[in-house]
Amino acid sequence: MGFKKAANPRSAFVKIFVTPDEKIAIQAEASSAMLSVSDFGHRRLFGKVAKDRYSYHAINDLSALTQQLKDHYREGGGRHEAELQALLDRVGVAIDKLWELP
């Protein structure tokens, strides 16, 4: 069992010249996004979001906070408004992290 063949596979090669510092920066951003330089460049050039590791952390934070909200609701029945508001504020911060991404 192999990879599914793409309908329009990437077969053309593009070469660009950058400075050594630019190359390091591109490689660092690609690595941070957990992508190859080729995939990272393709996504950036064609308007696709090249999510970085912070988006994954924000998504994980939202997932954990959602579970905490569910647990809090079940346990307290809405009696602990200050704690609930604090959790909602943390959800807002996690959502803001996602909006800050390129």
Notes on the protein architecture:
With 102 residues, the protein is mainly α. It folds into two domains: 12-50; 53-99. Helix content is 64%, strand content 0%. The chain contains four helices and no strands. It has helices spanning 20-32, 37-45, 53-76, 81-99. Helix 1 crosses helix 2 and helix 3 (53-76) packs antiparallel against helix 4 (81-99). The chain is elongated and about 60 Å long. The two termini are 36 Å apart.
What's the short version?
By secondary structure, this protein is mostly helical.
How much of the residues is beta strand, in percent?
under 5%
- Structural category is mainly alpha
Number of strands: 0
Count of discrete structural domains: 2
Shape: elongated
- Rg computed from alpha carbons, rounded to a whole number of angstroms: 20 Å
Low-confidence stretches: none
What is the arithmetic mean of pLDDT?
A: 77
Beginning-to-end CA distance, first to last residue: 36 Å
Percent helix, as a range, is 55-70%
Q: Helix count? A: 4
Largest sheet: none
* SSE order: HHHH
List keywords for this structure.
single chain; 102 residues; mainly alpha; 64% helix
SSE topology:
Elements: H1 20-32, H2 37-45, H3 53-76, H4 81-99
Helix pairs in contact: 1-2, 3-4
